[in-house]
Amino acid sequence: MPNKFILKLKLRSWCSNGRGNIQCLLARSLASWQGCVPCRRLQTLREISLRVIRVRLRWRLCLAGLAALFVAAPQPTRTANAVFVPSFWEPQARPGKPDLNNLRGLRFLTEDDYPPFHFALSDGHLSGFDVDLARAICEELNITCTIQARRFDTLIDALNEDQGDAMIAAIRIDTRSRAKLDFSRPYYTTPARFVSTVTLEHVAPTPESLRGKTVGVLGHSAHEAYLETYFPETIRKAYETQELLRGALINGSIDTIFGDGISLSLWLESPAGQNCCRFRGGPFLDANLFGEGVGIAVKKGNSQVRQALDYALALLAQHGTYTTLYLKYFPIGFY
Fold first, then answer.
1. Which residue from 290, 262, 304 is spatially nearest to 166, judged by alpha carbons?
2. 41, 72, 103 — which closes off a domain?
3. Maximum CA pair distance of the chain?
4. Contact 109/95 with Cβ under 8 angstroms?
5. What is the side-by-side order of every strand in the sheet holding 277-284?
6. Is 258 left (phi over 0), alpha (psi -120 to 50) or beta?
7. Total structural domains in the chain?
8. What is the structure's pLDDT at 83?
9. CA atoms within 13 Å, Cβ hemisphere of 129
10. For residue 130, is it within any domain?
């Protein structure tokens, strides 16, 4: 009797403390041994062993699942020199291959006066980030490729008149452009960035740190509207041109400017920007003010070409080709 009483007390203590675990399970099984024959005790022990094994297995599966989630989580891509390379494709996903049987080649339309995206070399050949990306797409799809340069204001009409299959010319995806064209997934966005003199590059730009401070910005631009909305207590000093804006930063009239990250990254590579200034803080994105990104445009309803482009872009990201091209044309990076 004393042994049974002690066992009941332990059982009540273990299970009332929320210990729905192996101790509670063992205690319940042991409490049911009263008057049992040895064979039943052996059977009970086997049942307990099986339950313990199941509990351990479940825990191991849970831990393995959590570990897999951490491994599969997409990580920001940074190169050895800490340049952030954007990625718009899930690294672990395997894109489904579309029907390419009737796609023998792609005719890309672009323009030749927007370096480093697309521009003409001295010998007349086209070059640039977009041009190289178009060629890489055709190589990935194993199809022929032609790239023709036209005046920018004629590109949409040429595409709609079937003079080309796709337009790769830094066309921003927004409500207005979507009304006329279909797009691949974005292959880059257009973030806004702060640039300051070297002495301020490590000071994070926040509404608090810039309260009452003067920031230069291009007048009547989306960037001025962004500052007005999200940095309301910052003093905005508007300039009519990019040259005047950056000149004010160089000559010390102001110590911080805010503008398009792409053009600012290219300026920071130039002799004028290299010695004076640096990016300050990270990128700022706003689909309403800065667009949803830049994609390759196709004629409305041309789903075959659009799906082929998305498929090729995802493969180029997986194979590292996109990173190579990005670093080739944007060694500083604009993110």
1. 304
2. 72
3. 104
4. no
5. 235-239, 214-218, 256-260, 192-197, 277-284
6. beta
7. 3
8. 86
9. 23
10. yes
> Distance between CA 264 and CA 284 in Å, rounded?
13
CATH code, 204: 3.40.190.10
Other C-beta atoms within 10 Å of 95: how many?
A: 16
Strand segments, DSSP code E, in 126-210 are 126-127, 144-149, 166-167, 182-183, 192-197
Residue 218: count of CB within 10 angstroms of its CB? 19
Which residues are bridge partners to 298 per DSSP? 182
Question: Per residue in 194-247, pLDDT tens?
Answer: 999 999 999 999 999 999 999 999 999 999 999 999 999 999 999 999 999 999
Residue the block writes with tokens 């921003």: 172
Of the candidates 70, 25, 32, the one whose C-alpha atom is nearest the C-alpha of residue 48 is 25
CA nearest neighbour of 230 among 293, 290, 284: 284
Distance of CA 148 to the CA centre of its chain: 30
172 and 55 both lie in a single domain: no
**Alpha-carbon separation of residue 209 from 106, 184, 215, 253 (angstroms):** 50, 39, 12, 19
C-alpha to C-alpha distances, 76 to 262, 294, 335, nearest whole angstrom: 19, 20, 11
Domain that holds residue 23: 2-72
Long-range contacts of 153-161 (CB under 8 A, 24+ apart): 155/109, 155/110, 155/111, 156/180, 156/181, 156/297, 158/109, 159/109, 159/297, 159/298, 159/299, 160/299, 160/300
Residue 325 lies in a domain: yes
Of 28, 49, 72, the domain-final residue: 72
Same structural domain, 173 and 297? yes
pTM of the model: 0.74
